[in-house]
Amino acid sequence: MFETLRLLSPPWRWIGTLCAPFSPLFEPAYHLIARSRHRLSRWLGLDACRLPEPTDPHRPSKP
Question: Its domain of life (predicted)?
């Protein structure tokens, strides 16, 4: 993420440059949030991270 910020114009470039050394500290939190994004979205009342239902002809449909 910080590498992307460093490609943008200031002040984002400065933020990316200053935060880049701390990237290893942010990585576990990023992965936790990424794994739980659909639950966090639902908890916030949003529908943004919902995954589409699989299309399996052998799977019974929900009522």
Answer: Bacteria
Number of domains in the chain: 1
Cβ neighbourhood burial of 52 (10 Å; 0-12, 13-18, 19+): exposed
| pLDDT, tens only, 16-48 | 899 888 888 888 888 888 888 888 888 888 876
Question: DSSP H helical segments within the chain, as ranges?
Answer: 2-7, 12-19, 23-35, 37-43
Domain annotation covers residue 62: no
Domain that holds residue 17: 2-43
Cα–Cα–Cα angle for 7, 31, 1, nearest 5°? 5
